[in-house]
Each structure stands twice: as structure tokens, then as C-alpha cells.
User: What shape does this take?
Amino acid sequence: MELISLVQEVERNVESVRSAKDERVREIRNAVEMMIARLETQLKSKLITLMGQKNSLTQETELLESLLQEVEHQLRLCTRSELISKSGELLQMFTQVHRKPMASFVTAPVAADFTSELVPSYDSSQFVLTGFVALQHKADPVYSNALNVCGLSWRLKVYPDGNGVVRGNYLSVFLELSSGLPETSKYEYRVEMIHQASHDDSKNIVREFASDFEVGECWGYNRFFRIDLLASEGYLKDDTLILQFQVSFNSDISFMA
Assistant: This one.
């Protein structure tokens, strides 16, 4: 009888474990549904802004087309003397076409990004390399200030004139874990070179990857970008290059913060 009782107790334990798991699944599903709903709200807000921009441009385009059609109609039907007599009216039409400066139609783009509640956020830092040409002539690597988060210290290691076999041809950029945990761990990182000519984020050069780091180790890109194109493509301005680097930290080391 005691064995039967023990078996029954184990079966009840199995059911309680399954029930607890099902409850967590329900919680997760509810949480995800709420996250999706918030994403939909973000999307709706962005689309409303974009549709407003589109409608404004469409209305102006339709007005312009209407005025041009009227001018063409007058030119076809009127004699030279009639056109001269209507010159004031035609001039007023053209004035109406140009009543708004083109700059008034230029709007800031809506960011194509959404807040994620699941993917770990990136901690970031910026590295501004001034006197870039002089740094190239030195041929030595230059280091950014440290990005310290969760007990780890990261920095960019940049070769302005390239590293090793690509020297003189490519900018080389690496991320270094300068201090942290003794064991090797995987981290996601992102290195971004700013397009200074336009400040348009879509033109930035972005490199993303995930690597296993241990203290003192570097991972990155020997051929990050061609040196001879830095200035002409709008990334090197006033002898200055701007890099941003971001690292996503594992949740299992958050206790060190």
C-alpha cells in the first residue's frame, strides 16, 4: 500500500509540474500578445505620420498638374495678343505654383525601427577619430575609450591605415574585450561608421556579428571599408571619422552590474 501511495504522489507531482508549465506558457503567450499589440500601436503611429506626408505631397502635386493643364490650355487656344493681355493672369498662375519653397515639402523620415522587449538592448559608445590623415601616417592602432557595462570593459581597436595584408587599402576595425569574466562567452556586437555628408542613418556602414570573446581577444573586420573611398563617399569629413560600437550582453551576467 505504501508503494501505491508513493506512486500516486509521484503522479500528482507530475500533474502539478505540467500544470505549472502550462501556466507559464499561458503567461508567455499573454505577454507576447501584449508586445505584439504595442508593436501594432507603434506601426499605426508611424503610418499615420507617413500618410499625412504622402497626402500633403499628393495634394500639392495635383494642384501643380491642374495649373499646368490650365496654362497649356490657354497657350493652345489664345492668340499672341490674347496671351499678352492675359500675361498678368498667367504670371499669377506661375506664382501660385511657386508659392511654397521646395524645402517646405522635405520631411524627416520616419525611423524604420521598433522597440523590442525580447532582444537584449545594446550598450553603445562613439569613437571620434580626429586628425585621421596623421593617424594613417603613424600606422599604429588607435583605441577608443572603454565602454564599461556589467563588469566588462570593451573598446574599439582601429587601424586607420589598415592591418597586415590590407595596409594602405582598407580601414581595419576590431572590438576588444579588455577586461571581464575569465571564461569565454558569446556576445553580439555592432560597429557603425557614420555618413557625415548627409547624417542619413540609412547610409551608415554597419557590420554586425556574434563572436566568442575572452579577455584580451579582438574580433572584427580587417576589410571594414576602402580607405580611398572614405572622403569621396562622405564618411571622412574635416579629417574626422566617426565610429559607433555597440555590444549586447548576455542576461546571465547581469548580476555583475
About this structure: The mean pLDDT is 83. Helices lie at 2-77, 80-85, 87-97, 132-138.
